[in-house]
Specification:
about 500 residues, mainly alpha, 2 strands
Length: about 500
């Protein structure tokens, strides 16, 4: 009862006219930032943080604004992923696997509406989870040490490897390329320059934005030009803007399962939406059995990653609020907002600042309703992107992408690297190498290395530390099962078919 009373007080704070307007503005700005390739929630929140502080907003209003932007970015990232095959951020990478094929089939409207409802479902389930389980989940998250985090990331990579069927060697090669590129730059432990070829611009590594823009936007532009040369038929629109009842019934349990799983993964500091979306997509693909079109345009392939990454985004607030540990890069920026107001997040925050905490939680409910109501009518506008002729769309995508790349460091070197990565991505896609393992390997590479080194440092180099806890052992078993299980099942099916013949 006490929790419900506090939540009601939070709604009293979040539902004032001023805070409702702030949340609405944040939702709109977040959606715009999210759909622009290369920006993402971290940049959106970081840009608005000094503005919110300069406007002298009270702390609860400033946090409501930043959380609305955060939620809006998670919604917006799916738009360019579905329409242009260019994910707005790392969490939307998995959405491209089925979202863009659906758009090419003329089902961009239903795909966008399904992703909006899945995002809403994931965010609402996660917010309810924050209300009910935040302190308990914070204690559970502490049980994950460096060894457990390393094995969790191995599990994420094995999930994606299990998706590719007979293309496992190609998936492993793509993943290894991503892992290799993640090692470029200064070694944070020894200070040694690695794979920089005496180029100072590579000292900080290759930015994620450069990789994702190159692999998706630049390679997609090259594929567009190739298809334009072959005189393809234009993408036909179905005329439908909403999914039908059959599509919803097919995806409803996918959304709920992915929302719950994404929330628990998001609670782990540093795990993030990338791992959540990849693991949930892999899990749903496997549960669908043989009767699915994952990778070719399946609504469940849009619903699973969108529910998971939005649930993970909200789940990452749990360690920030309860432990003072940022659950993601974006929540790290939001912690900076709290410190600007002399508020220290941690175990006593719920007791010391109940107005701020519960006002923030209540605003998440309100912001997600706003985003759903805002995004559904805008689908008609978003779908118009597909009506733009290729001769105009290609330079438009190129210009937006290059601006996103240039904005990282403000130098032309990143533009050159982006084009080279794009050429590599084009070659991989022409040879039917999957791009998702490449991105996942790059995103997780640095975190895997750091957690492996920490684990080995704690154990004085004993490799057994990676198998020393029940959590780690369970994750190893799950990783092996994810990688080997589908192939064993196919072997048994083929033997059964031969025996019956």
């Amino acid at each position: 009862m006490e929790t419900l009373t506090l939540l009601a007080q939070g709604f009293a704070v979040a539902a004032t006219p001023e805070n409702l307007m702030i949340a609405l503005i944040g939702c709109f700005l977040g959606t715009v930032v999210g759909l622009l390739p290369g920006l993402g929630p971290i940049n959106g929140v970081a840009i608005l943080l000094p503005i919110a502080f300069a406007m002298k907003l009270p702390p609860e209003s400033a946090l409501i604004l930043l959380c609305a932007v955060y939620a809006g970015c998670e919604y917006g990232g799916r738009i360019s992923a579905i329409l242009l095959n260019v994910p707005g951020d790392a969490g939307a990478v998995m959405t491209t696997l089925d979202g863009y094929p659906l758009a090419k089939k003329g089902l961009a409207g239903p795909a966008l509406s399904m992703s909006a409802v899945a995002s809403f479902t994931g965010a609402m389930v996660a917010t309810l989870g924050i209300v009910a389980f935040a302190p308990l989940l914070a204690e559970w998250a502490i049980a994950f040490g460096p060894a457990e985090y390393f094995v969790l990331m191995v599990l994420a990579l094995s999930c994606l490897g299990g998706l590719v069927g007979d293309s496992l060697p190609k998936a492993m090669i793509a993943c290894l390329i991503g892992l290799l590129l993640s090692t470029v730059g200064i070694d944070s432990n020894s200070g040694v320059y690695r794979f920089t070829f005496d180029m100072l611009h590579l000292a900080d590594g290759i930015p994620f934005i450069v990789i994702v823009i190159g692999l998706f936007a630049v390679s997609e532009i090259l594929l567009m030009l190739q298809s334009l040369h072959a005189n393809p038929e234009p993408i036909a629109l179905s005329g439908r803007l909403m999914f039908n009842l059959k599509e919803f019934m097919l995806a409803k349990w996918t959304m709920l399962r992915s929302a719950v799983a994404g929330f628990f993964i998001g609670v782990l500091p540093g795990a993030g939406a990338t791992i959540a979306s990849a693991m949930c997509y892999a899990s749903e693909c496997r549960m669908a059995g043989k009767d699915h079109q994952f990778g070719e345009g399946d609504m469940r392939g849009v619903a699973a990653p969108e529910a998971a990454n939005n649930a993970s985004a909200n789940g990452s607030l749990v360690p920030m609020l309860t432990l003072g540990v940022p659950g993601s890069g974006t929540t790290a920026v939001m912690m900076g907002a709290l410190t600007l107001y002399n508020i220290t997040p941690g175990p006593t925050l719920f007791q010391d600042q109940p107005v701020i905490v519960w006002g923030l939680i209540a605003s998440l409910f309100i912001a997600n309703v706003m985003l759903l109501v805002m995004n559904i009518p805008l689908i008609r506008v978003f779908v118009k992107f597909l009506s733009i002729p290729v001769w105009l769309l290609v330079p438009g995508v190129a210009a937006i992408s290059m601006v996103g790349v240039y904005a990282v460091h403000g130098n032309t070197f990143d533009l050159i690297v982006g084009v080279l990565v794009g050429a590599l991505g084009y070659a991989l896609r022409v040879m039917n190498f999957p791009i998702a393992p490449f991105i996942l390997g790059f995103v997780l590479g640095d975190m895997m290395e750091q957690n492996l080194r920490r684990a080995l440092s704690i154990s004085n180099g004993e490799i057994g530390v990676l198998f020393s806890s029940p959590i780690a052992i369970g994750l190893w078993v799950a990783a092996i099962a994810m990688l080997v299980g589908p192939r064993v099942a196919r072997m048994l099916d083929s033997r059964r078919a031969v025996a019956q013949a």
